[in-house]
Backbone:
């Protein structure tokens, strides 16, 4: 059954990690290493079944292949999940045991933070393997990725405005920002620096109030965010918020935000295109975070990171060009851009066997 699934998804390797003493049940999925070693975050979640965990890690790792390819990185796609409740099942032994499994792959998979994981957990993983990104600055890490993800989202927005309106005047338009968490708040800050009108909502009312008090935003209810007259809808929290129920209510011309999996389905993506909306594919727009941590592999430099974020403008512009050229929705154009790059580079190199770069050797924590 699992091999039949892998035939369909195209994964190269799936590793089941088990340590009874540490209580570790984890899965590492390496989807594609044509462009380089696989990079993708570690997620900890109380999955209802092992099959649910397998489905999630296969889906997420494939998504990282496309994200890293469109971002122009010399990295493939991978992901890892730990089956457990992040609120009560974390321990040093658990993460160090996981780190040993990562290390055994000799750099074919490089891990990072994801849902349910924080920098303290990564510190324990780092004690067992150097193949970790997103560690503290004292270890050569880059710290909080949120400002970079938000800045990258702004680059995607500039490209989207140019495609839709023929200009990049951020302050000329209004924005409905759904989600005022770490990335959402940073994005709101950037919008307000351009003097743009911003509607904001979040399940956390304190964050909404902060956006109002500190940045002069207009607060709206969780459900009312879809009914604003904003020209741009920016989902920066939950996925699937562009669906049959909400699409009818949106008055925007542009959809550009930092959330993952914004389209509820491909059919919704088709309908977005049919209605003439300019949708900037999420994994192209929110690639700033992975771009940032990727630089830790060769030795982190903040100035270089900021320059790299600006390539998101080019990537998103290219996606709009492909969509127009091939008369396809932008979500398909993004996939096509990724697949073309993987195919082209794939003719030049074999699947990556591991990382041997000096910058990754000797990084082991102590």
Residues:
């Amino acid at each position: 059954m699992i091999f039949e699934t892998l035939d369909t998804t195209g994964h190269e390797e799936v590793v089941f990690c088990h340590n009874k003493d540490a209580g570790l049940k984890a899965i590492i999925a390496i989807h594609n290493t044509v462009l380089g070693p696989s990079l993708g975050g570690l997620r900890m979640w109380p999955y209802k079944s092992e099959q649910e965990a397998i489905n999630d890690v296969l889906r997420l790792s494939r998504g990282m292949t496309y994200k890293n390819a469109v971002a122009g990185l010399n990295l493939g796609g991978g992901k890892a999940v730990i089956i457990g409740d992040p609120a009560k099942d974390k321990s040093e032994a658990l993460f160090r045991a996981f780190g040993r499994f990562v290390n055994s792959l000799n750099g074919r998979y490089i891990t990072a933070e994801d849902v349910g994981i924080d920098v303290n957990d990564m510190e324990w993983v780092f004690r067992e393997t150097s193949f970790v990104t997103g560690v503290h600055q004292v270890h050569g890490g880059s710290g909080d990725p949120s400002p970079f993800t938000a800045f990258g989202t702004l680059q995607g927005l500039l490209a989207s405005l140019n495609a839709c309106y023929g200009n990049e005047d951020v302050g000329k338009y209004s924005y409905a920002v759904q989600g005022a968490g770490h990335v959402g708040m940073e994005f709101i800050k950037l919008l307000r620096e351009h003097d743009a009108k911003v509607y904001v909502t979040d399940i956390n009312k304190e964050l909404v109030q902060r956006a109002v008090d500190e940045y002069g935003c207009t607060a709206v209810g969780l459900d009312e965010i879809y009914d604003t007259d904003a020209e741009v809808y920016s989902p920066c929290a939950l996925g699937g918020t562009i669906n049959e129920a909400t699409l009818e209510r949106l008055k925007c011309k542009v959809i550009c935000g930092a959330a993952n999996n914004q389209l509820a389905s491909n059919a919704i993506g088709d309908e977005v295109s049919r209605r003439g909306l300019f949708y900037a594919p999420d994994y192209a727009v929110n690639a700033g975070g992975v771009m940032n941590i990727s630089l830790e592999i060769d030795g982190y430099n903040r100035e270089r990171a900021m320059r790299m974020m600006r390539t998101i403008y080019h990537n998103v512009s290219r996606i709009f060009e492909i969509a127009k050229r091939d008369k396809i929705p932008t979500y398909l154009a993004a996939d096509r851009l990724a697949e073309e790059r993987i195919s082209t580079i794939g003719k030049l190199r074999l699947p990556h066997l591991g990382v041997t770069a000096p910058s990754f050797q000797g990084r082991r924590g102590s």
